[in-house]
Amino acid sequence: MRRCAVIFLGYSFPHFSCHACLGFSPIRLPFLVGRYLSQSLHASSNTRPFPNYSPKKPTILDAQLVHQISNAIKLRHSEPLRHILKPYESKFRSDHLIWVLMNIRHDYKLALDFFDWACLRRDPNLEARCIIVQIAVASKDLKLAHDLICDFWAIPNLDFGVSFPHFVDRLIYTYKEWGSDPHVFDIFFQVLIEVGMLDEARSFFDKLLNYGVVISTDSCNLYLTRLSDNFDRRRISIKVFNEFPQVGVCWNTASCNIIINSLCRLGRVKEAHCLLMQMKFRGDAPDVVSYSTVINGYCLGGELQKVLKLIQEMQMKGLKPNLYTYNSIILLLCKSGKVDDAERVLREMINQGIVPDTVVYTTLIDGFCKLGNIQAAYKLFDEMEKQRIVPDFIAYTAVICGLCRCGKMMEADKVFNKMFSRGVEPDEVTYTTLIDGYCKSGEMEKAFSLHNQMVQSGLTPNVVTYTALADGLCKLGQVDTANELLHEMCGKGLQLNICTYNSLVNGLCKSGNIRQAVKLMEEMEVAGMYPDTITFTTLMDAYCKTGEMVKAHELLREMLDRGLQPTVITFNVLMNGFCMSGMLEDGERLLAWMLEKGIMPNTTTYNSLMKQYCIRNNMRCTTEIYKGMCARGVMPDSNTYNILIKGHCKARNMKEAWFLHKEMAEKGFNLTASSYNSIIKGFFKKKKISEARELFEEMRREGMAADAEIYNLFVDISYGEGNMETALELCDEAIENCFLNRIKKEKQ
Asked: Does the pLDDT of residue 182 top 90, yes or no?
């Protein structure tokens, strides 16, 4: 960074800021230079001189006292001032302080000691304060000068509006005689910024121009930073960036970085990018911070291609991305659902010697959890701990949320308890996530137990917490209890919102009470809460699952008439309805219509179609749909692979099934128990016993139970091989998994 001290107009030629980025064309730079030269010459010829210092003259008696004090101080050895000046305390006044300082000013330590002694007797006046500041700066003790000014602005009940002009006047008045070091103005400018007096700082900057003084670039950068930090003043920082070079401020790379950040935070990323490109014209090469800030701006806007281009440009210039750069890219990729690519970026980051922080790992963990890839999330979670990066409550909550989504409540509960054992306190979101998971799995007793634990720990359940509980009760058909709970919620001052109503509608639909769900939707409107896309989609889903496609279509028409835009989930509901009703041709037409209208189908859309074609044993159409899905950049998930594997097994395409199994394992996805059963049986039919055995053992390691037919097959094989111990072990396992568990479920 190029450090620029306070400069005088006429003695320093400034570098120009990049006006092209902020509305000026580069072709106008010669004109601006010419304009600046004329302004500078005009300014330097019209600057006023600093005033001469002419303090009040002491009386004869005052002069004698000042002489006595000065001599006593100069002649002291190691004796404290409080002892040698004891005889003069009763006669000492603020005026005497200045007169004595005039006699001892060249002995810096002595002047400071005397000033401290005087301050303990009575508060020095403003002139004396400014004098000691000037002496400190002239002695290159800039820190003390800074502290002395800060101490003044920290005085209780100080009227800033009155004190500011007086302080400025005294500082200028004492400048010529007591220091003549322009750094004093720099320090005062910095203090004004630090205490939040930004308007006064600008006023002081303008006043100094009358004396031909320009504040240093570093101090102006501090001013830019504080303006940028304030949302209401952010635009002013850009204006200042344009104006200050015209009076002699030499902006540097740090200055440009501040403005790039301001532009990005204002959503003006293209202008920030323009400034980045124009920096080289003003002699300040962009650094890692410059690029990282623009990259982050594009990442927040989801513009991946521009991000990749900027990274390539960085590398061509020999600049290595830093932690901030990688964080931004990983977040963008995770938001785009490209979590595998995000993990590859993590590995590249580690290879570059950059240590990831909690934020990077948490972002990736959350991304994998949202995709349902819990195994990959767990792997990263373990990696964090091995790297001694302590997971925070956000990381734990992300894992708990992912496990709850997959219905793995036992594992979620273990992670929750692990939080406590590691001293990490869960917040309202963590509790609510786990409560919602238990509600969705129908374990309402545990959900309410957690609710009570949450309250006892001093956390307040919110609308989302109560909505989850009400939703769980509705799914179990306990609508009256859910209503009582919501009345309790309203009694606590919490208001029902659209999410609460949607959860109730969803709960009623899930419990098969569609009529009451429709009635509730009508009651919503009476209460002034209008149904949204989610409300209609939920009811459409209920009708589709009961095969009432006509009513689902009517709801879609009503939804469109109200001006509500269907989402991809709405179309997925319809797609699932068509497929479940055996209307595959209508499903194909819906997919074609979505693509025509620019509505990008997601994995669920394709999965519905592929599942039904697999059931019909039409693997040709299934494969075409799968290829079309991949060609459009829609990534297969765990469900996709399981559907395809079962379909190929049914069609006896065991090579394809085996290949897909390997591919999904590489991506961190797991086979379901039904997929294991299908692929094992498929290999048996093909007489591939070793492959079948390998998968059977893998299935057992995963803690999954095979069906009775498969147990019978392997019991026979073990018996035929003379391995009675294994045969008996498999018999016991079969009895436990296939018969006892079935009896337990029937009792429940």
From this structure: yes
Long-range contacts of 542-546 (CB under 8 A, 24+ apart): 542/509, 542/514, 542/517, 543/514, 543/577, 544/573, 544/574, 544/576, 544/577, 544/580, 544/581, 545/576, 545/577, 545/580, 546/514
Residues 6+ apart with CB under 8 A from 718: 724, 726, 727, 730
**Within 13 Å and on the Cβ side, how many CA atoms surround 539?**
26
10-31 burial code (b ≥16 CB/10 A, e <16) = eeeebebbbbbbbebeeeebee
For the chain, the distance separating the N- and C-terminal CA atoms, rounded to the nearest angstrom, is 72
Beta bridge mates, 8: 213
Question: What CA–CA distances, in Å, run from 672 to 338, 458, 510, 614?
Answer: 23, 40, 24, 16
The pLDDT tens digits for 124-136 are 889 999 999 999 9
Contacts of 646 by beta carbon, 8 Å cutoff, 6+ apart: 614, 674, 675, 678
Give the DSSP H/E element, type plus range, for residue 154.
none
Residue 152's SS3 state is helix
Q: What pLDDT was estimated at residue 741? A: 53
What's the pLDDT at 18? 41
pLDDT digits (tens, 9 = 90+) for 249-283: 999 999 999 999 999 989 899 999 999 888 877 66
The answer to whether the predicted template modeling score (pTM) of the entire model surpasses 0.85 is: no
Count of beta carbons in the 10 Å neighbourhood of residue 47? 17
Q: pLDDT category, 641, cuts 50, 70, 90? A: very high
